[in-house]
Amino acid sequence: MTEDLTPAEAYAAARARNAEQATALAPFREMYEFGLDPFQIEACQALEAGKGVLVAAPTGSGKTIVGEFAVHLALLQGRKCFYTTPIKALSNQKYADLVKRYGPDKVGLLTGDNSVNGDAPVIVMTTEVLRNMLYAGSQALSGLGYVVMDEVHYLSDRFRGAVWEEVIIHLPESVTLVSLSATVSNAEEFGDWLDTVRGDTEVIVSESRPVPLWQHVLAGRRMYDLFEEETDHGGRGASRREVNPDLLRLARTENTRTYNPRERRRGKMIREADRERERRQRSRIWTPGRPEVIERLDAEGLLPAITFIFSRAGCEAAVQQCLYAGLRLNNDEARQRVREIVEARTAAIPSEDLHVLGYYEWLEGLERGIAAHHAGMLPTFKEVVEELFVRGLVKAVFATETLALGINMPARSVVLEKLVKWNGEQHADITPGEYTQLTGRAGRRGIDVEGHAVVLWQRGLDPGHLAGLAGTRTYPLRSSFKPSYNMAVNLVDQFGRHRSRELLETSFAQFQADRSVVGISRQVQKNEEGLEGYREGMTCHLGDFEEYARLRRDLKDRETELAKQGAAQRRAAAAASLEKLKPGDVIHVPTGKFAGLALVLDPGIPAGRTNGHRGFEQHDGPRPLVLTAERQVKRLASIDFPIPVEAMERMRIPKSFNPRSPQSRRDLASALRTKAGHINPERHRKDRSAAADDREIARLRTELRAHPCHGCDEREDHARWAERYHRLQRDTKQLERRIEGRTNTIARTFDRIVALLTELDYLRGDDVTDNGKRLARLYGELDLLASECLRDRVWEGLTPPELAACVSALVYEARQSDDAVPPKLPTGNAKAALGEMVRIWGKLDALEEEFKISQTEGVGQREPDLGFAWAAFQWASDKGLDEVLREAEMPAGDFVRWCKQVIDVLGQIAAAAPKETSTVSKNARKAVDSLLRGVVAYSSVG
């Protein structure tokens, strides 16, 4: 209290208050009803001191406050601030927040879909838009003082992550960078890189959540706490979280089956009373249904809740299940408010489209307080769900994991149905980072005292594994940066090849690679010290023991090589003997599980490729089907015949023989034993060893005996040291190769790309040709293919709908890549142009292989996907939404997203194509107008 302060302390406190009032932070803090957290204050103070900042903090902790302070500083200083986000929905949301604070005159929006007030001092944009501005040298960069990169951990994204690094590297030095990230375990490493490429950067890491999170498992009717809190272990006053023993006991009970129908007890099957007791025990454990989960959360006051289901169809099914169950989470007043908001937000959508979009079923769920949220939904519908959820008018949302990526939609509880999801290639366990991201939505700051994460019980659930997910904060930031064709021509145009190479070597990807090399280099140094010690240990007073050891190794290697050759020859001889077998041959199987007398029923197939049920399969030799003397019918493999086999006898196989009939097998096996049971198989004579007659082995043995060290009394001791020396030397060379492979990897990839572009006349030394300048304006995964199509005039003479169909192949990627049904295509010129595009891609693919540019490394051109061509053609031809969606078999949200991506690339093509000598530029603009209608044109902003 102030009255307890000495006069000197009171004076010092007053000066500190006055000093704080003089900062830009003081009036900024007054804009908020709540006090700022220490990490927010620390970051804002660093910003005001002129430093860049990296803020790593949990989801929902309020790190965007730091980004908003950068906006505040820019406006105070009369400079510009660009606020970048990874997704358009987040850009729209941030734009609305900033407009509410600073007014529409001071805030603009630039995404692929919208351009609102592009000259404003504060512009919200997607990261790709800023990257394109940097390469184009846009005038909008003039006066830029601050760039906020929200969700900067997106640079780990293998498809889009490179954009973040491009922006960070190429931003003018005068721009202060504000990087906002989820909690990552290597924030200091990322901060060190930012310090290297951007100058003085303060790293602020906050591990604490603003709202405590409680972890639960819901099994049957009971909600178990995942952890039980234990404190003061060892008298140190520390707290440690232990897995709830009740949950461990439950897992043991559930995962250990005690009932086995074959088990006998005292000569009888398990008594009915025992079964009934077990059934009663198990009846307390089940996975609750979705409506049951929502009702349970509602009864315990844990709504609103987001249930993460890793499937769009699952999200829609969950809503329907809740509706069928009669679930109602809203009263009449809330229902009326929902209807008013929904009707206002969807007023621009024609009534015939509403029916196609499933509007009335969607509205019924919203009125009851229940909704789905996933990428397959119309963007307007998703935004309505987000708005209603934030207002508390939707209380249960079933969502895919995309909702966890930045959208400001916190809940009191988060439910995870399963801990496994499809990652595009296989079903895999979710990672600790993904678990943290998903459960980070639980607990609304300023509203909830605590958040709750609920995992539904599933058979086989391991509470220890779940506790590991919940208790681990390891989410390392890994660069996914790779040079692209567009990046290469833009860099060479601005900086020349040499400087471009140096710039790429400053990427976070190379920074991480170089850091990993440091540890390997230390190991190489240790190994070299060890080699020196081993060299002393093998020193012999009689001569050069290293030379003697090399002779011993050469001898051993030659003997091993001959032994392998001999084994290969024996296998070949055995395979040749198997190919001579015929049905009815009686043989002796020399080894294996079915060794002994056998009758050949089917000699099998010869070695090579055969067309099996899994396509072409490789076989290393015949696999005869035999009947053994013990009545077993088995398909043998070459491993059962290490030596050649010959028929000892012949037998007739009855036409009535059925290998599936026990009686048939018994009769034929009995006949086999009668016919050949008395015959002893000939013993295989072992061939003379090839080593005995090998001149190289004879020479090495002679040299070995003649070497001075051969007569040393300590020869075997020296030999042991020599063997250790050899192994360590081999390991050291492998480490050195790893260092060589990781050093300058980005620059080497850039060199290969530049060489290919030079071959295609996009670059000539440090000069960018006209072809290259065209490529510099084309951004996207298939940038080079698009440029080649323009150069070869593939799209000349196409109508706007036909051009839209062709351009769709540059952006579209089917969710199921293994779909064998050929896509429906427009006829005529469009079909011919699409075929030509695939031909050009084939030429580029061969060229990339020649220049060692690999798609597996994230570089290169994938094959164009024609799966959206018909839908784009139909929509651009003014067909109705119902017809287009029905034929495309695609959710409205996916259709809108792909259309907008086609529009984006059409805009790039319109800008890149020659205006005077080509119709492509004009038709690309017309195609944009044709696509930008109806559901595709609906937008919440602008």
Compile the SSE list and pairings:
Layout: H1 7-21, H2 25-29, H3 38-48, E1 52-56, H4 64-77, E2 80-85, H5 88-102, E3 107-110, E4 115-116, E5 122-126, H6 127-136, E6 144-149, H7 162-170, E7 176-181, H8 187-198, E8 201-205, E9 213-219, E10 222-225, E11 227-231, E12 239-243, H9 245-255, E13 264-265, E14 268-269, H10 272-282, H11 290-299, E15 305-308, H12 312-324, H13 332-345, H14 351-356, H15 359-367, E16 370-373, H16 379-390, E17 396-399, E18 413-416, E19 420-422, E20 427-429, H17 432-439, E21 451-456, H18 463-471, H19 485-504, H20 508-537, H21 545-579, E22 585-589, E23 596-602, E24 608-612, E25 615-619, E26 625-628, E27 633-635, E28 649-650, H22 662-676, H23 695-706, H24 715-742, H25 745-759, E29 763-764, E30 767-768, H26 770-775, H27 783-791, H28 800-811, H29 829-850, H30 869-876, H31 881-888, H32 892-912, H33 920-931, H34 934-937
Parallel strand pairs: 1-7, 1-8, 2-5, 2-6, 3-5, 6-7, 9-21, 15-17, 15-18, 16-17, 18-21
Antiparallel strand pairs: 3-4, 9-10, 11-12, 13-14, 19-20, 22-23, 22-28, 23-26, 24-25, 26-27, 29-30
Rg over CA atoms: 36 Å
Task: Give the strand order, joined by hyphens, for the main sheet.
Answer: 4-3-5-2-6-7-1-8
Helical stretch count? 34
What's the helical proportion of residues? 40-55%
**Sheet of most strands:** 8 strands, mixed
Low-confidence stretches: 230-239, 257-270, 607-618
